[in-house]
Specification:
Keywords: Dioxygenase, Oxidoreductase. This is Protocatechuate 4,5-dioxygenase beta subunit. GO terms for molecular function: ferrous iron binding; oxidoreductase activity, acting on single donors with incorporation of molecular oxygen, incorporation of two atoms of oxygen. Pfam families: LigB. It is a single chain. This protein is α/β, with parallel strands linked by helices. The chain has a single domain (about 5-275), classed as Protocatechuate 4,5-dioxygenase, Chain B (3-Layer(aba) Sandwich), CATH 3.40.830.10. It contains 9 helices and 10 strands. The protein has helices at about 15-20, 30-35, 40-45, 100-110, 125-135, 160-175, 205-215, 225-230, 240-250; strands at about 5-10, 50-55, 70-75, 80, 95, 115-120, 140-150, 180-185, 255-265, 270-275. Helix 1 crosses helix 5 (about 125-135), helix 4 (about 100-110) crosses helix 6 (about 160-175) and helix 6 runs parallel beside helix 9. It binds 3,4-dihydroxybenzoic acid and fe (iii) ion. Fe (iii) ion (FE) binds near residues 12, 187, 235 and 238. 3,4-dihydroxybenzoic acid binds near residues 12, 13, 59 and 193.
């Protein structure tokens, strides 16, 4: 049976992709942020996951405001990236795992999650930047993209994302393959890119959220989506991707391997987290 070896999470700011493309990792603005990936990469080199399930939000590349699924799961043999207009290079296609995708889709539908299935799916910076950060040599494992609407209201609640993540975790655990799987939550932490509160960051909330991820991960599910927007910003609500990835990995306590928190990268409080089974 497949085994979940951990849950990773990171912010996905497009400027990170630009910094990687330009080789700026050691520049003063970027050094502390990129140095924070040494420990996650050491952990990954040790654990060597075969497959990654990426919980992320599409920002208009694959889904636009005219058609916006609440949850969508990729079921393709490969996923293409494309130009989003951020001035970062388009990356080569990412390998999929259709067999696991369909196992997840079957289990989600059987458990009343009315998802969209995508046999063709473009993946945007929220998918590509985390994979580039954790696997800078381009050797990321084959992936299942799981897309959550964090963009156009109404958004799914944190509680619903937790439940969806749990169902994905059950599907992975029931997958009849002797493979190691890691989950990734993409986005956050607090940031708001537009309107009167542009630049909004809430460090106390972010640190509390990070604190709860190992031992009390359902803490944030007490908040409605509007409360999360109030506390973390219109884009900070991307933290629901973290909750789904955390839920998929384990319903119970996990052990924190490493965590970073860095204000700001671009407009965002950038954070990274690695959890492993307790
Ligand atoms: C930024 C952050 C995001 O999450 C995103 O999707 C795009 C831009 C930013 O801070 O620049
Ligand atoms: Fe984003």
């Amino acid at each position: 049976m497949a085994r979940i070896v951990g849950a990773l999470a990171t912010s996905h700011i497009p400027a990170i992709g630009g910094a990687i493309a330009r080789g700026l990792q050691k520049e003063p603005y970027w050094k502390r942020f990129f140095d924070g990936f040494d420990r996650p990469r050491e952990w990954l080199a040790r654990e060597k996951p075969d497959v990654v399930a990426v919980f992320y939000n599409d920002h208009g590349l694959n889904f636009f405001l005219d058609k916006m699924p609440t949850f969508a799961v990729g079921a393709a043999a490969q996923y293409r990236n494309d130009d989003e207009g951020w001035g970062i290079p388009t990356l080569p296609p990412f390998k999929g795992v259709p067999e696991l995708s369909w196992a997840i889709i079957d289990h989600l539908i059987a458990n009343d999650f009315d998802i969209v299935t995508c046999q063709e799916m473009l993946v945007d910076h929220a998918f590509t930047v985390p994979l580039k950060l954790f696997w800078p040599d381009g050797d990321a494992p084959a992936a299942v993209p799981i897309c959550i609407n964090t963009v156009q209201f109404p958004l799914p609640s944190a509680k619903r994302c937790w439940a969806m993540g749990r169902a994905v975790g059950e599907a992975i655990a029931g997958w009849d393959r002797d493979l190691k799987v890691v989950t990734i939550g993409s986005g956050g932490l607090s940031h708001q890119l537009e309107g009167q509160r542009a630049g909004f960051i809430n460090k106390p909330f972010d640190l509390k959220f990070l604190d709860t991820m190992a031992d009390d991960p359902e803490w944030a599910t007490q908040f409605s989506v509007l409360e999360l927007v109030e506390k973390t910003g219109t884009q900070g609500v991307e933290l629901i991707n973290w909750l789904a990835a955390r839920a998929a990995a384990s319903p119970g306590p996990m052990r924190k391997v490493t965590q970073t928190y860095h204000i700001p990268i671009s407009n965002t409080a950038a954070a990274t987290l690695v959890l492993e089974p307790a």
